[in-house]
Structure formats: C-alpha cells, structure tokens
From TrEMBL:
Family matches, as Gene3D superfamilies: Metal-dependent hydrolases
Domain of life: Bacteria
Protein name per Swiss-Prot or TrEMBL: N-acetylglucosamine-6-phosphate deacetylase
Length: 382
C-alpha cells in the first residue's frame, strides 16, 4: 500500500507532551514519528495566557516544515479552547476567545493549523463556559465562518448534556454555515472529535474496567445494534450522535473514531463503519505515551489502556495506530475500509502533497501483516 498511517489526533509520543509546546522539540518528535512509520498531527491544549506563545510555535513549525525538517509532522491541531464540557481535557485549555483572539487563531491556518476541536453548543446554558460569555463574544456561526475561511476545520465535540435538542440545532448551524461557504459532500471540512465520548447518549458505548468487562457481553446484546438504521438512530443512540452519523453518511461530516476497544466498544465501532461507510471516518488513537497532558498528571486504572485524570475521567489513550489496525482486522473490516480510515481519508481531507506548505512525501510503504492472527478480549458478535 503506497502510504503509512496518519495519527490524526494524538497528544504525545514517547516522552513528548505536545501541549507543552513552549519546550517541545519538534525535530525529535519528527524523528520518533519516522521510527514508528507514521505521519502525525500534534494535538495541543491551549491556555488563554499562552496564545501569543502558540503563534510563535506555529511560526517555528511552519519554518521547519518548509525547510524539510518535519516531513512526518503533517499539521497541528487544537483541542479547545471553546469546550462546553472539559471532559478529560486540561481545564486551563477551556475558555471563551474574543473576536480578536479567534482572529489570531485563524491566522495560524496558513502556518499549518489543521483543525480545532470546539463545542458548537458552548453558548448554551448547560455549557461550562456559559457564565464567562459576554455580549461582545462572537456567536458560533461567526466562529465557524472565520475558521473555514482560513482553511481550519472545526471538529465538533465535548457537548453539554442538559439539552440535546438545542445541541442538535447548534450542529445544524455549523452545517448551514459550511454549506453557505460552498462545502461539498465528502470534502471533510467539518469533523468531529472522538465520537460517543463526552456527548449525551441513550446507550452504553464502552466497558472499560475489569469489572465492567465481566458484564459486557450480556449488556452488549441488549443494544441490538443489528437493528440500528439511519432512521432510528435518534431513538437508539440519542439526538446528538444521530445527527453526527447521519451527516457523515451524507458526506457532510467526517467522524473521528477510536478503535482501541476502550474509548468505544469494538462492536459499536464495527456497526458505525457498516452504517456510515469508511469514506466518512478517520481512525484516531487520542494517545499519549507519557503520564502528563498539558501539565496535568495522569494515571492508569487496572485492566485498561487509558489515561485518567485525578477525578476519574478519561483523558487520553495509550494505544498505537498499529494496535488499532489489528483491532480493525480482528472485527472483520476489510483492507480498503482500514486504509481509508487510517490514511486515505485523512490524506484527502488534509490535501497532503498538494500545497507549498507541505513537502513532497517521503518514501511510504505498508507494513501490515496480511496473515496476522489477532485475538480480542471480548466477543464482538451481535
């Protein structure tokens, strides 16, 4: 296969915490990505008082990228700052930018900022940011238009939980703005953060701890996922995940899904691929290899491959893209579906190798063991 996987959403590699961008050694990160045979986007949490330092960091990234020193770092992304729910992210990275601050962020699009995770419902009463809103803060339509005009994709996530119907209306506003600006189906201009995590749901999507996994098989059967259709997703999954999957099926949104088996159950992952199609999905790891994210210490629970904050909320994953590919093979996805989600869809969305910011690709190759045999800890049959 003439490509290698793209880590589309990751927080750290080896000892490098990407959110500590003030001291991040980009050339070391590039070397470590090359050793893993992956391209990567570095996902960063941005505190309000660090925005000018972030702009300097983006200028440095762009300069090194143009000099050919960062062939394996294909972009930068932000998780926040406009988040209705902190949901595992560093608390300092959730805040309400002014118009001037959004304009600063938007100008980073020309420097390699690829997307920013944001909550379209951040202005609703149920948002953790609602008490910080002022009359001169821009509305979501203005923000989305500003980002898209600077070639930065909004990635929708971290929703408030009090009013799913109102959140759906906010998602529709995003889609309407994108349509007004000429968004074409399957262009990938609108993304999601990790689907099913930190959003209102009508079903259980994951069994993470050792104790949870004991009840998983019986509880999973009650989901009756073989009966899920585009027409009944509102009832089965909830209004917010339903509009995301339905829009992805129509090519209006590209879903980001974690196939580590912990963020989302692998049986659920497989059904989403069946319903939506691999052409509208990107596989992500949400990984970091170090027990720190944006200066906050993380810890592990026994029996999981996840990092947790002190309050017990999942902060990040710790599985590699290679493990995700093994899981995809194990649940019966074919090679086309797998390579769509780990490489070809993100390549298409990022427009890699097509503009002067991005260098010519290095030699690329597939290293997938075609005859590999993988085992799963649980039964994913329906």
């Amino acid at each position: 296969m003439p490509t290698i996987p793209i880590e589309f959403h990751s927080h750290g590699i080896k000892k490098q915490d990407f959110s500590s961008f003030q001291t991040l050694d980009l050339e070391t990160v590039n070397k470590e990505a090359e050793q893993e045979n992956i391209f990567c986007i570095l996902t960063i949490s941005l505190p309000k008082d660090s925005i000018d330092e972030f702009i300097f960091f983006m200028q440095l990234y762009s300069s090194l990228r143009k000099a050919g020193k960062l062939s394996y770092i294909v972009g930068i992304s932000l998780e926040g700052p406009l988040l209705s729910s902190v949901g595992g992210t560093p608390e300092r990275g959730s805040w309400v930018p002014t118009k001037q601050e959004w304009e600063k962020i938007a100008r980073c699009g020309s420097l390699g900022l690829r997307y920013t995770v944001l909550s379209p419902d951040a202005m609703l009463p149920g948002s953790c940011l609602s008490h910080n809103l002022k009359p001169d803060h821009p509305d979501i339509a203005w923000i989305i238009e500003m980002l898209l005009q600077h070639n930065i994709s909004p990635a929708l996530g971290h929703f408030q939980k009090n009013d799913p119907n109102a959140s759906v209306e906010c998602i529709q506003t995003v889609l309407d703005v994108a349509k007004k600006l000429g968004n074409k189906p399957f262009s990938g201009r609108i993304l999601t953060d990790h689907v099913f995590n930190d959003m209102p749901l009508n079903f259980r999507h994951a069994w993470r701890t050792t104790e949870d996994k004991k009840a998983r098989n019986q509880q999973f059967k009650t989901l009756q996922i073989e009966e899920w259709t585009m027409e009944n997703l509102d009832e089965r999954l909830g209004n917010v995940p339903a509009i995301l999957l339905q829009s992805a099926h129509a090519g209006l949104i590209t879903l980001c899904i974690n196939f580590d088996g912990a963020h989302v159950d692998l049986g659920v992952c497989r059904r989403v691929v069946e319903l939506v199609g691999s052409q509208s999905i990107i596989a992500i790891t949400d990984r970091t290899d170090t027990n720190s994210l944006g200066g906050e210490r993380l810890w592990r629970k026994e029996g999981t491959n996840l990092w947790y904050q002190d309050d017990g909320i999942v902060a990040a994953g710790m599985s590699s893209m290679h493990l995700q590919m093994q899981n995809m093979l194990a649940i019966g996805l074919n090679e086309k579906e797998i390579w769509d989600m780990i490489a070809f869809v993100p390549e298409r969305i990022l427009g890699l190798w097509q503009d002067d910011l991005i260098n010519s690709p290095p030699d690329r190759f597939s290293y997938v063991a075609k005859n590999g045999v993988f085992s799963l800890p649980v039964d994913i049959s329906v």
